[in-house]
Design goal:
Elements (H helix, E strand, L loop, with lengths): L8 H4 L3 H19 L4 H6 L5 H13 L2 H4 L3 E8 L3 E8 L5 H7 L1 H6 L6 H14 L19 E6 L5 E5 L4
Antiparallel strand pairs: 1-2, 3-4
Length: 168
Amino acid sequence: VQQFKDVSREESYGNKVLEKAFIAISKKSFASKTDPSLLAARNIGNMYTGSVFFGLASLISQVPYAQLQGKRVGVFSYGSGCAASVYSFRVCGDTSSIAKTLDIAARLDKRIKVSPAGFEKIMELREKTHNAQEYEPSGNVDELLPGTYYLQKVDSMWRRVYGRTPSN
């Protein structure tokens, strides 16, 4: 870093060598601060609006509450150039009951794995039934988590009827 001490602020803006040096220096620190919040995103992919909240849920589920106590958490949501929001908060209190309820790692492990061919069949069915009337989905509701709402049918006027799996 000392080699850059005489670089002016204006020169630093476009200096790729300087940028790479600072990225290398901060890489470990950045990873330790961001990796715990990426569990859901790495396993599910882009969730658009939900990404910011799944990041927060991942952080709470991956970092013991004693390590989070008193820490400031920054939350940033980028809206594809149209809008963005940023806020922060300080963690106060025990987050372990939240982490236990979320149980993200276990829920991710329980996902049903589908082959690419199976996924294509699911998507074909979705395309065929999009905006369908007089439609009753087929599928095993026993695979849903307790308390999950699911679509039972769509009538001739596109009114939806929902069911709910039993809660534990």
